[in-house]
């Protein structure tokens, strides 16, 4: 944790600011913020089932956040996690329907396929950026819509359920990532094996970034591509690799969402978590451990929202606004880190000056 | 004694730094007053306060004996204060006249004719030899600077501030500028010259106020003070100007550039049929005014920019189309022109920066896994050997280091590679005298080990100080290569302006 | 690493506080000083009759789209609101964060944990969620509109005693609207914009086409229908897309569009308004509820020719009344069609002539007595 010792403090103050902003919003509509937050947190945590659901939401957020954070490290803004989730989720859904293997092998296959699907969706913008200097934000947004409409075509054509045109047929429960013993511990929550994959991914990514030459290159390219180029690092190759891995991680997020949390893939829905992951990455300061924690926090908010809604007079639309306010205020507050930095420095300077002055006086006396 | 400008006990604080601390500046009417200080000493801040760009936290400004408040450049102009900035503020597609009357058009109908007439008169009066009808983009940088000067004169400026005016000029242009300044003083104007170049002060200034780290060190009479004394006041300790350098027999060519042609960012040829060799055990300096193709040449040699035609050979082997890494491995070290942009990853710790060219190979990594202890030790060794000072040692972020220490770190990293060829571009730009001395010494040491050094600098002093041979470059062409011992600054200066020696001799 | 640990501990601490708060509250709930609301949050083992006069708490969960979608969600909610305005229930709706089974079940859980024991869910998407919920929350009652509980693989259909499934004969409603529109226009080119390709929308479409055909064959109208003008946008919320599709249909000479598409239909209505303002003669046929007010122009006229209605509000309101009267038809599958006045076109149709209204009434009678039958499938000759 030698990088940015104050990232944690920044994150905590950002969370507090976000909660205050949400509280002000609740006050503005005439609700009691303390009551609101009480039910919000209770909704996310009051029993094992709800804790399980909070974690289930956090799994996907964690992997998307990791995807965005990883791309950030290489100076890329992966706004295409939603599309990568869709493609990864589609691959995972196909595996879930057609591949029958002993559980460990099955899990391996589904992970590999979901990763590959997302990676494909990530590597294309990477290639476009490397070859033709197409900005990745533009390319990934377009890829989102290509994924959206591909799923739209693919699901009714090849994965149609018995009656509905709008979603794929459901995956048999034993082919999902849900696991009887986990479900039992968490009283029927939607927590699934994805949590272990997500945590593993967090630590693998952390290791890659901190300890490998690949991570070294990616970070160098992300922090200063001119210097990286000068040092002989192949910038374009790293851009491609970074987008590929970021896409793969988002693909895994899609797997946990469509074959863990949900049991089918719906057409005409862009997964909003693909965008929430940006906030997760920001709050987590693009640090894998930070992403893990911020995903849990956001998972709790998302998960507790409904109960707050049910217990208070806050209208559902406003509840969404409150959650969004907390999330985005939190995420943007992180961007104020420079402000905090300078504030801290100025204070230190002033203290130093005072100390110096008093020392001088003492000397004179 | 009539002080035309008095700045008394000026203090200006920025977050985290006291830029000016109780500085007093008194400029007499009709004198050229130099302000001398290292980069970051607070010269520019002081002048920005005088010109109304900043407001002093404390202190008094008097113009012609009267206390004034200067809140904006307009106030300054009204008081007869004009400033020639380092970066010109001219509209490239306008004529000289149009640029000068811009913002001072007078009545609604433009009277270009009478304006042009007055400009011509002013130009002759001060020896500026400017054609009022020339378009800015068609005239040289030196001429553009004179347009800036004319702009001030046109606005009836009595006090002219020059902010590092010689950075962009050839030696001849510098001489001419000095003459212009003298003319202005003769006409009763006062000049404030901001610089860190001692020979210029010696050449033109009457008195000199010396600033060090935001504080005033003293005011000296230039004629009776030696350069060494002024330098010592500026730096705070005695300074050595000349690097001790022994004669050396140059060996076989290390770098050979053959008929090289390179395009710049605008796809216009920036290097044209350039041929040059740098041999083992010699330092070849490339002299030239900034923007004459030096950057493109270096980028083509190091692989950052493709060559259109021609060849680059290292130790006899063609590397014209090799990757950057292949060139690094073949033995090219490169101290880049812009250390912040290319030289270091500012947001990464110093330790990582020290192995940025070697991290991928043993002993720094194995099978793709970094060996942090080895990296740390290597970085520490460089920092020790090259006296790189930082707050938290090798854990400090590169961006937190001072400019001099950043540059020492880069030099150390490149030297540690023990390359056959080191390319040093502006290796001492913006550094204080102490750091300059140190880096010069190291470059000479490298040469003494029998390696080759290609030096690119816009400072003639530096070129003459270090080089065994000097290659002069003008608009992408090699004008000539001369031995340092057999030439002088004047001759090189002429060549920098594009005049071949033989022609000049004729 | 120390910091990570620190954060972990903090999260744990928050969790502990929450859990302990939870305990505290359930403890206070058992004391006599508890407020009625808290009493209800207790999972009540006692018989409901033993509770003195707490109002029935009715919860609703919205489907995709907003509560004011001028269609499915809104219709259902209006019925519940009507009951609330009569002072007989307390109502609340929740908006799930997604449209998966898990999202729906979470909201059902939220309503349940907040004391809502009568839960209405509009839409087929709730089928599997209600299947699970009917066993998980046996003390709650559920009304599912447009669907019936079944397992995800459609292997088992089971409607427990605490669930009522309500269906409408959308094809009959579409049929009547088709007749009405054809009769009013006499000649023209009719199109259709659907939201997603789901059974309810498909049935509207097929019924509409049968109605237009019936009018052409038996009532002397001459209406054109082209396959290219019969399509599904693919969502219920893309207003802009609805407007674009409507614009291109109008450009191709369509003058009446039946928009069974929620928010997409709103886009179509907007386009029609713009065209009518510009002097064109184009119309929209609304869906689910009487959309006449939504098509209102500043001139006081509306671009809504008529609406193919299913009385959603009536269903939710009636079910609440049944529950309060103790006659909740648990375990049943209700079909609302012409025979029980579950569908139809609005009683007031300012854009239809009295003759047309009379003719439509006549056909409504024929649907009622079975003289005319409308298919709820894609008969040969009908467009997708």
List the helices and strands and how they pair.
The complex is a heterotrimer of chains A (365), B (506) and C (384).
Chain A (H helix, E strand, L loop, with lengths): L6 H22 L4 H13 L2 H26 L7 H18 L4 H30 L3 H23 L21 H6 L8 H18 L1 H11 L1 H6 L4 H27 L11 H11 L4 H24 L4 H20 L1 H28 L1
Helix pairs in contact in A: 1-2, 1-14, 2-13, 3-8, 3-11, 3-12, 3-13, 4-5, 4-6, 4-11, 4-12, 5-6, 5-11, 8-9, 8-13, 9-11, 12-13, 12-14, 13-14
Chain B lengths: L2 E12 L2 E12 L3 E5 L6 H8 L7 E6 L2 E3 L4 H6 L2 E4 L11 H6 L10 H15 L14 H14 L4 E5 L7 H16 L3 E6 L2 H7 L2 E6 L2 E7 L5 H9 L17 E11 L5 E11 L3 E5 L6 H9 L4 E8 L2 E2 L5 H7 L1 E4 L3 H5 L6 H5 L10 E2 L2 E2 L1 H14 L17 H14 L4 E5 L7 H16 L3 E6 L2 H7 L2 E6 L2 E7 L5 H8 L4 H5 L1
Parallel strand pairs in B: 3-8, 3-9, 6-7, 7-8, 13-20, 13-21, 16-19, 19-20
Antiparallel strand pairs in B: 1-2, 1-4, 4-5, 9-10, 11-12, 11-14, 14-15, 17-18, 21-22
Helix pairs in contact in B: 13-14, 14-15
Chain C lengths: L1 H28 L6 H6 L14 E6 L10 H14 L3 E6 L6 H13 L4 E5 L4 H10 L4 E5 L17 E6 L1 H16 L1 E8 L4 H20 L3 E11 L6 H13 L4 E5 L2 H15 L5 E6 L15 E7 L1 H14 L7 E4 L6 E2 L9 H16 L15
Parallel strand pairs in C: 1-2, 1-3, 3-4, 4-5, 5-11, 6-7, 6-8, 8-9, 9-10
Antiparallel strand pairs in C: 10-12
């Amino acid at each position: 944790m030698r990088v940015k010792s104050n990232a944690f403090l920044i994150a905590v103050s950002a969370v507090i600011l976000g909660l205050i902003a949400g509280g002000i919003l609740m006050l503005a509509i005439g609700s009691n913020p303390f009551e609101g937050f009480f039910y919000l947190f209770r909704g996310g945590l009051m029993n094992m089932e709800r804790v399980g659901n909070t974690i289930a939401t956090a799994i996907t957020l964690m992997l998307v956040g990791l995807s965005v954070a990883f791309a950030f490290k290489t100076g890329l803004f992966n706004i295409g996690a939603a599309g990568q989730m869709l493609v990864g989720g589609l691959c995972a859904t196909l595996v879930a329907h057609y591949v029958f293997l002993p559980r460990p092998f099955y899990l391996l296959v589904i992970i590999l396929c979901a990763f590959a699907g997302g990676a494909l969706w990530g590597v294309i913008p990477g290639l476009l950026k490397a070859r033709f200097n197409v900005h990745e934000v533009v390319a990934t947004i377009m890829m989102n819509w290509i994924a959206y409409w591909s799923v739209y075509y693919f699901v009714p054509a090849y994965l149609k359920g018995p009656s509905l045109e709008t979603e794929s047929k459901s995956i048999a429960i034993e082919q999902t990532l849900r696991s009887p013993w986990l479900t039992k511990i968490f009283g029927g929550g939607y927590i699934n094996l994805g949590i272990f994959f997500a945590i593993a991914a967090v630590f693998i990514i952390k290791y890659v970034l901190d300890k490998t030459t690949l991570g070294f290159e990616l970070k160098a390219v992300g922090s200063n591509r001119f210097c990286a180029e000068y040092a002989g690092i192949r910038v374009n190759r790293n851009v491609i690799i970074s987008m590929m891995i970021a896409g793969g991680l988002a693909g895994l997020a899609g797997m946990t969402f469509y074959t863990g949390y949900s049991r089918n893939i719906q057409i005409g829905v862009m997964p909003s978590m693909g965008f929430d992951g940006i906030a997760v990455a920001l709050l987590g300061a693009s640090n894998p451990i930070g992403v893990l924690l911020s995903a849990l926090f956001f998972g709790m908010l998302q998960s507790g929202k409904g109960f707050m809604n049910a217990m208070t007079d806050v209208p559902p639309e406003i509840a969404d606004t409150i959650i969004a306010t907390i999330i985005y205020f939190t995420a943007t507050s992180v961007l104020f880190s420079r402000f905090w930095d300078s504030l801290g420095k100025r204070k230190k300077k002033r203290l130093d000056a005072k100390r110096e002055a008093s020392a001088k006086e003492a000397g004179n006396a | 004694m009539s002080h035309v400008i008095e700045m008394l006990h000026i203090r200006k604080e920025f977050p985290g730094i006291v830029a000016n601390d109780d500085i007093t500046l008194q400029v007499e009417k009709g004198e050229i007053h130099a302000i001398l200080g290292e980069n970051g000493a607070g010269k520019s801040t002081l002048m920005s306060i005088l010109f109304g760009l900043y407001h002093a936290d404390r202190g008094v400004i008097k113009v012609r004996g009267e206390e004034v408040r200067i809140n904006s450049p307009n106030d300054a102009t009204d008081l007869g204060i004009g400033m020639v900035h380092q970066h010109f503020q001219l509209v490239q597609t306008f004529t000289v006249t149009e640029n000068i009357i811009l913002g001072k058009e007078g009545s609604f109908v433009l009277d270009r004719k009478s304006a042009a007439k007055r400009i011509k008169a002013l130009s002759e009066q001060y020896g500026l030899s400017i054609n009022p009808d020339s378009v800015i983009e068609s005239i040289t940088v030196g001429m553009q600077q004179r347009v800036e000067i004319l702009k001030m004169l046109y606005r009836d400026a009595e006090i002219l501030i020059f902010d590092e005016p010689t950075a962009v000029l050839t030696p001849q242009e510098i001489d001419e500028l000095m003459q212009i300044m003298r003319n202005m003083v003769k006409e009763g104007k006062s000049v404030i010259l901001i610089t860190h170049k001692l020979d210029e002060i010696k050449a033109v200034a009457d008195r000199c106020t010396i600033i060090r780290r935001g504080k005033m060190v003293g005011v000296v009479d230039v004629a009776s003070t030696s350069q060494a004394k002024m330098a010592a006041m500026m730096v705070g300790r005695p300074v050595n100007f000349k690097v001790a350098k022994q004669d050396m027999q140059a060996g076989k060519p290390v770098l050979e550039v053959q008929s090289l042609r390179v395009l710049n960012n605008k796809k216009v040829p920036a290097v044209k049929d350039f041929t040059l060799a740098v041999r083992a055990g010699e330092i070849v300096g490339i002299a030239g005014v900034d923007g004459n193709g030096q950057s493109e040449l270096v980028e083509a040699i190091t692989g950052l920019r493709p060559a259109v035609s021609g060849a680059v050979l290292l130790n006899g082997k063609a590397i014209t189309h090799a990757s950057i890494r292949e060139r690094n491995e073949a033995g090219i070290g490169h101290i880049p022109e812009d250390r912040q942009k290319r030289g270091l990853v500012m947001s990464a710790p110093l330790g990582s920066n020290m192995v940025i060219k070697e991290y991928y190979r043993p002993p720094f990594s194995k099978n793709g896994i970094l060996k942090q202890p080895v990296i740390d030790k290597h970085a520490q060794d460089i920092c020790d050997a090259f006296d790189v000072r930082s707050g938290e040692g090798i854990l400090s972020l590169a961006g937190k280091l001072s400019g001099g220490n950043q540059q020492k770190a880069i030099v150390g990293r490149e030297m540690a590679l023990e390359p056959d060829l080191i390319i040093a571009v502006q290796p001492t730009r913006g550094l204080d005298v102490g750091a300059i001395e140190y880096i010069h010494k190291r470059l000479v040491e490298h040469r003494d080990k029998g390696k080759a050094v290609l030096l690119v600098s816009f400072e003639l002093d530096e070129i003459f100080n270090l080089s065994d041979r000097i290659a002069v470059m003008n608009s992408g062409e090699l004008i000539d290569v001369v031995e340092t011992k057999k030439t002088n600054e004047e001759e090189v200066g002429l060549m920098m302006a594009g005049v071949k020696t033989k022609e000049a001799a004729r | 690493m120390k910091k990570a640990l620190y954060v972990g501990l903090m999260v744990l601490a928050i969790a502990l506080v929450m859990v302990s708060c939870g305990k505290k509250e359930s403890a206070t709930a058992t004391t006599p000083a508890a407020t009625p609301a808290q009493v209800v949050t207790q999972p009540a083992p006692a018989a409901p009759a033993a509770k003195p006069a707490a109002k029935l708490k009715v919860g609703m969960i919205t489907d995709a789209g907003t509560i004011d979608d001028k269609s499915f969600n809104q219709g259902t909610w209006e019925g519940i609101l009507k009951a609330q305005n009569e002072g007989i229930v307390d109502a609340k709706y929740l908006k799930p964060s997604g449209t998966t089974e898990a999202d729906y079940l979470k909201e059902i859980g939220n309503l349940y944990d907040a004391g809502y024991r009568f839960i209405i869910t509009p839409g087929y998407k709730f089928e599997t969620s209600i299947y699970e919920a009917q066993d998980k929350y046996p003390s709650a009652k559920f009304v599912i509109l447009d669907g019936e509980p079944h397992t995800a693989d459609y292997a088992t259909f089971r409607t427990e005693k605490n669930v009522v499934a309500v269906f409408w004969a959308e094809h009959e409603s579409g049929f009547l609207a088709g007749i009405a529109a054809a009769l009013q226009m006499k000649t023209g080119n009719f199109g259709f914009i659907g939201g997603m390709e789901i059974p309810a929308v498909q049935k509207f479409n097929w019924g509409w086409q049968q109605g237009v055909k019936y009018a052409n064959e038996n009532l002397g109208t001459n209406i054109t229908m082209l396959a290219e003008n019969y399509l599904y946008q693919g969502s219920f919320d893309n207003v802009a897309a609805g407007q674009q599709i409507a614009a291109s249909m109008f450009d191709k000479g369509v003058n009446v569009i039946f928009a069974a598409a929620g928010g997409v239909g709103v886009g179509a209505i907007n386009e029609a308004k713009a065209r009518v303002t510009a002097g064109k003669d184009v119309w929209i046929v609304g869906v689910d509820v009487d959309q006449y007010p939504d098509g209102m122009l500043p001139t006081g006229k509306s671009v809504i020719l008529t609406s193919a209605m299913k009385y959603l509000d009536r269903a939710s309101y009636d079910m609440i009344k049944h529950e309060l009267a103790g006659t909740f038809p648990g375990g049943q599958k209700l079909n609302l069609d012409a025979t029980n006045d579950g569908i139809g076109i609005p009683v007031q149709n300012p854009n239809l002539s009295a003759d047309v209204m009379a003719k439509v009434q006549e056909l409504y009678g024929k649907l009622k007595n079975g003289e005319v039958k409308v298919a709820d499938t894609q008969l040969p000759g009908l467009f997708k």
